[in-house]
């Protein structure tokens, strides 16, 4: 049987963009790979090459406080992902809305169930239109459950939904780690003021592109969650986010690559991008608008810790980032560097 070598393209080629309905499509940003690297970790049978490639897309956007407006952008991105033959599209944290305050978020969350229902219907309609199938991973807010309210906890839930091509919600993951930060003589950020933390690790899902382990934003800083998801069978990890500019510049790519190397998984990083239109408080006339800005730089990292696709940071429009995941190459990396066989469970226990 013929042998072929998996080749990653050369670095430095300009990313091309296609514009439709004011949404740009960013093709795979191409990277250099050394012959020795390819030979050792990416050589495989040519007959298996095509079937092991799985196309995904990231829908990067700048959500506002208008759920209807955000839904329109989401539908456009799904439409374009279907045209590009993606099997799953990943959206950022809080795609349904970005608020200006905890109280504003508590008011807006009542509209979120309607946003989700409209999205479920749109997915079915778009799949019918294209005669193709696509699943959707999307970050939304959801109101407190009846059980929560019976415990006198009315805080909303920061959730990641996995919706199949037929509109069925297959998974609802609630963010475990909340972004609570107090900087001396600086900002105080308390996500827990309006959001209740999750309590369970999500199941690893079988998807059209591989076995998926999901988390949200701040979760990426806690490697034990990623390690547990890998132990449970994940091939792909997803961290939809709304990183601040400061933390994004310092840590976004570093964290993505670290989790990829820790777990030998593909890591998908959908990010909110740009300055969000959150409106002004009608009860505070004359007050300056709250400024909310997110880092963006959505990307996909392979199991060798290499960025294989990324958004164009100079483009302020919604973007579709497309990447092909090669599970055969991933299997070879894991086989050649068998980290899970070498873990010292006799020393550290079975927490991963």
UniProtKB/TrEMBL annotation:
InterPro entries associated with the record: C-N_Hydrolase, C-N_Hydrolase_sf, Nit1/2_C-N_Hydrolase
GO CC entries: cytoplasm
Single GO molecular function: hydrolase activity, acting on carbon-nitrogen (but not peptide) bonds, in linear amides
Keywords, sorted A to Z: Cytoplasm, Hydrolase
PROSITE patterns: CN_HYDROLASE
Compartments, record wording: Cytoplasm
Classification via Gene3D superfamilies: Carbon-nitrogen hydrolase
Pfam assignment, any one: CN_hydrolase
Main subcellular location: cytoplasm
Domain CN hydrolase: 54-327
Alphabetical list of CDD domains matching this protein: nit
Family named by the database record: Belongs to the carbon-nitrogen hydrolase superfamily. NIT1/NIT2 family.
Protein's recorded name: LAQU0S18e00804g1_1
Organismal lineage: Eukaryota, Fungi, Dikarya, Ascomycota, Saccharomycotina
